[in-house]
Amino acid sequence: MIHPWLQETWQRLVGLGARLPHALLFVGPEGLGKRDLADALAARLLCAAPGADGHACGHCAACQLRLSGNHPDLLPVVPEADAASGKEAGDGDDAGEGEGGSGKKKSSQIRIEQIRDLQEALAVTGHQSSRRVIVVDPAEAMNAFTANALLKLLEEPPEGCVFLLVSSAPRRLLPTIRSRCQQWSFSRPAGEAVAQWLSAPEAPPADLLALTGGMPLAAQRLARNGSDALLRRFVKDLAQLPAGDPLKLAGQWESWLKSKEALAAGFDMPQLVEWMQRWVTDLASLRLGGRVRFFPGEDGVIAALAQRTSVAAVTNCYNELARIRRVAQHPLNARLMLEDMLLRYARAVTGTRR
């Protein structure tokens, strides 16, 4: 599926025809549909008779194999956790750590063994034709050893191979990886294409779209997970915090993160800290004379808070949240992290040293 805001890019890709390079890197924020675009291009490249619109026909033998998940010449390289959960990690879903039947956590990284398996698979000719397509998502999930192993394939690609790399954090890729790929950059969609999509019945609420910075698919994922109710509680708690006890709220949030509601929605510490960062970003923006971007429905609450703080205080708070976010995936003590975060926020908006 090609989303409205990606149609122009799709037509450009189709127009390349035989001039399509052997390696492409799709980069941009999560939630734009980069992986969907890569999958559509992979389908086209493997299809025996693509349609006039450039899409795979969906009927030939190659398409039937692909649709059944058994095409031997389509080689996805994704973290074990994402393969186990069916996630498309590079484009709107957080890379989780699923568990197998043994209870062992699945890796959220692309392991070097996967690249070695890929090397073996590419050492023989294609099964359906000479064309083979490798989709690496998210490309930044490779460590230096894994990336160097892939680099060897990019430097001397087997005949007929096309590599499609998807990344939301291209700066984490080796410069040599980036230099071997033709880069296609995507930015936040705007204009008529998004307006058309927002009119569809399955479009997410406007507050979730704003929270994700205008990333349509990220907002849609939040809506499907029931995150709108979580967002309402988050806003209510922060609005009441200046007059409340941050330590008490930390205890409540610790229980909240373990609740069935939060677990069902995939709501975890990293996402909570990210929401805090975006709340403080709006606070800083308003304090500096800008506008509320992520929580437009709460501009009155944020405006009142902005009057109680200073630019220095809210900037320091944001910087501390950035530090906390770097370790939020695996906190040593979740309760202490929540207390630290909320105490720092309370100091910023009350001007006290609580």
Automatic annotation (TrEMBL):
GO molecular function per UniProt? DNA-directed DNA polymerase activity
Is Disulfide bond set as a keyword in this record? no
Cite the entry's keywords alphabetically.
Answer: DNA replication, DNA-directed DNA polymerase, Nucleotidyltransferase, Transferase
Query: What residue stretches are annotated with the DNA polymerase III delta subunit C-terminal domain?
Result: 256-345
Transferase in keyword set: yes
Q: Which reaction does it catalyse?
A: DNA(n) + a 2'-deoxyribonucleoside 5'-triphosphate = DNA(n+1) + diphosphate
Renumbered to this chain, region (Disordered) spans 83-109
Q: Give the EC number.
A: 2.7.7.7
Out of the domains of life, which is the source? Answer: Bacteria
The record's annotation in InterPro entries points to: DNA_pol_HolB, DNA_pol_III_delta_C, DNA_Rep/Repair_Clamp_Loader, P-loop_NTPase
Classification via PANTHER family = DNA POLYMERASE III SUBUNIT DELTA, REPLICATION FACTOR C / DNA POLYMERASE III GAMMA-TAU SUBUNIT
Q: What is this protein called?
A: DNA polymerase III subunit delta'
Q: Which organism is it from?
A: Aromatoleum toluvorans
